């Protein structure tokens, strides 16, 4: 019965006999060493190697990244591995370049030409009002800095 099925399939595929089919389509060797069979056999080992490489890179990358620390009225760039420095945060180029503490006077440009704020404020650890040139977090308390308002300008800057 099986031979009749094989012969029927061969004729259906356009071959006169099974031997003609085998000649046109030789069977694959079982011991064939190709990339796919090796990959399937070793995918656990390959996965472990890839994970180890990624974890090693991330660990190295975290250690070698730059950080910044607040010094008096501005940020200074340092290496993250320095453990004896207070208020260390991940380096942010925009914050590093723009956030400074200042003492504005009435002539300070409080608003940009588009009407958006150009000054932010927050309270220090001692509870004193401080003014900054960029939005973000207070460098010592970690609280969000508030945008300047006309009320704050009138009460604390121009009415001293």
Offer a quick outline of the entry.
The protein has 160 residues and is α+β, with helices and mostly antiparallel strands. It has helices at 2-12, 18-24, 35-64, 93-98, 150-157, and strands at 66-71, 74-79, 88-90, 101-102, 120-123, 129-132, 146-147. The chain is elongated and about 105 Å long.
Account of the protein in words:
The protein contains five helices and seven strands. The protein is of the alpha+beta class and 160 residues long. The longest helix is centred in the first third of the chain and has 30 residues, at 35-64. The mean pLDDT is 84. The N and C termini lie far apart (107 Å).
> What does the radius of gyration come to?
35 Å
Pick out the low-confidence regions. Answer: none
Percent of residues in helices comes to 25-40%
Order of helical and strand elements: HHHEEEHEEEEH
The strands making up the biggest β-sheet line up spatially as: 4-6-5-7
Coarse morphology: elongated
Classify the beta-strand content into a percent band.
15-25%
* Beta-strand segment tally: 7
How many domains in all? 2
What class would the helix/strand composition place it in? Answer: alpha+beta
Separation of the first and last Cα atoms: 107 Å
Total number of helices = 5
Outline the secondary-structure elements.
Layout lengths: L1 H11 L5 H7 L10 H30 L1 E6 L2 E6 L8 E3 L2 H6 L2 E2 L17 E4 L5 E4 L13 E2 L2 H8 L3
Antiparallel strand pairs: 1-2, 1-3, 4-6, 5-6, 5-7
